[in-house]
Amino acid sequence: MSRAAFCVDSLNLPLVAAPMFLISGPELALACCREGIVGSFPALNQRTSEGFEEWLVQMSDGLGKLQEENPGASIAPYAVNLIVHRSNPRWQADLELCVKHQVPIVITSLGAASQVVEAVHSYGGVVFHDVTNQKHARKAAEAGVDGVIAVAAGAGGHAGTINPIVLVHEIREVFDGTILLAGGLSHGEDILATQALGADLAYMGTRFINTTESRAEDAYRTMIIESVSSDIIHTPAVSGIPASFMRQSLEAAGFPMDKLNQAGEINYGEKLKPIDDEAKAWKTVWSAGQGVSQITDVVSVQALVSRLTQEYQAARKRLCS
Question: For residue 270, which phi and psi values (nearest 5 degrees)?
Answer without folding.
Answer: -95, -25
